[in-house]
């Protein structure tokens, strides 16, 4: 299984009584001191349990948010409490990340005990990958363990400079699993491979789409990013969110996709209908708009031909979800797949409905989720990536219905497109 992972792991080092620096990604959503998703904390438990069972003294370091300096709302203290509850063990919290107090608490740690340091991004030297700062973080440390998959695409002090200073630097189980599962589907998927890509911004995922146009058997586009494609095709999208700066790029991508459609059995699908509304809230009224029957020429006749208006997105409306035809088509393609990579919601899933578990702009996403999770019979292997997509799957309580739900956002995207990740490069080769 771990062929794709060529770094040493915690299985390869002697941990007994060693002071271990565990870089985790505890960048979790916190509202008024309350953690609203503890997925990243839970996913770090196998590594922590292994470390303590093998007698290590565990110092955990993480960032939280993007602070400019110390910020009470971004303290990791609530994480120490939650981690303690999940492990049923005391987790000592240190109010600083480096310095006398941190060093004293590190020294006092006994085998099997855990210390969580304060948010490493309270120090600007973290982001600037500062070597002096890294030396302070590394003080007294015997072994560096990287298990914060979500942050390995950053070349920061705690992900790059620190391991460079330490003799043994190895991966934890979460990092190993993420890299192995993701690279397995990117490099040797069971085919047909379908990429389902949605979410907010095309600019974040253009490289991912480009990659899948090369390697997948079908690429299905939804979410706000589909609007930029529709705009590039000359369609009217009303007041919908789109990225004007990306139109030229998107045209190139569509040409590339079209070349493959013509030479290969390849599907490139953009929504043919959408859910339009004047407002993005629970109480709004929605309208299905089907633009599939209209050529660009007929769009030119709008609004001269009022009969067509119901099939056009109006100037004061936005598309907030894919429509039922598009959702069904995508569900059908997913049913033909052996492997699906899903990154990004098909619509604005966060808006709640009044009397339904599915919000007004979440039906498209719900349809493709049903197709991916076996509701229509077949259950392909599905890898889910993206911060908000993972949050959606977690909120709906359906994580276990997927084969792998990544804890990484940017890191997952970078790994998928084949970039080198500094936090992984810094580890010992297996
Ligand atoms: P991820 O974090 O999973 O990669 P993104 O950050 O790219 O996903 O996008 C998620 C966001 O995209 C969600 O907040 C969702 O509301 C938004 N979104 C999806 N479709 C639309 C749309 N049609 N209009 C506006 N926002 C959208
Ligand atoms: C994430 O949430 O994607 C990671 O924790 C990385 O955070 P960053 O984008 O602020 O570096
Ligand atoms: Mg996001």
Structural class: alpha/beta
Strand content: 15-25%
What is the helix fraction of residues, given as a range? 25-40%
| CATH class assignment of the largest domain | Alpha Beta
* Global mean pLDDT: 94
Small-molecule binders:
adenosine-5'-diphosphate, 3-phosphoglyceric acid, magnesium ion
Major β-sheet strand ordering: 5-6-4-1-7-8
CATH homologous group name of the largest domain: Phosphoglycerate kinase, N-terminal domain
Distance between the termini: 15 Å
What about the largest sheet? 6 strands, parallel
Note poorly predicted spans: 294-302, 305-309
Query: Helical stretch count?
Result: 17
Please give the radius of gyration in angstroms.
Answer: 24 Å
CATH topology of the largest domain: Rossmann fold
Number of domains: 2
Q: Could you say which overall geometry the principal axes of the C-alpha atoms support?
A: elongated
* CATH second-level architecture of the largest domain: 3-Layer(aba) Sandwich
Tally of extended strands?
17
What does it look like?
The structure is a single chain. The protein is of the alpha/beta class and 430 residues long. The protein has two domains: 10-175, 3-Layer(aba) Sandwich (Rossmann fold); 189-416, Phosphoglycerate kinase, N-terminal domain (Rossmann fold). It is built from 17 helices and 17 strands. The protein has helices spanning 39-43, 45-53, 77-87, 100-108, 124-127, 131-137, 157-165, 173-187, 202-215, 225-232, 247-263, 296-300, 324-336, 363-372, 387-395, 410-416, 422-425, and strands spanning 19-23, 30-31, 34-35, 57-61, 91-94, 114-117, 143-146, 168-171, 193-197, 218-221, 267-269, 273-277, 286-290, 318-322, 339-343, 381-385, 404-405. It has a six-stranded parallel beta sheet with strand order 5-6-4-1-7-8, sandwiched between helices. It has a six-stranded parallel beta sheet with strand order 11-10-9-15-16-17, with helices on both faces. The two termini are 15 Å apart. The structure holds adenosine-5'-diphosphate (ADP), 3-phosphoglyceric acid and magnesium ion.
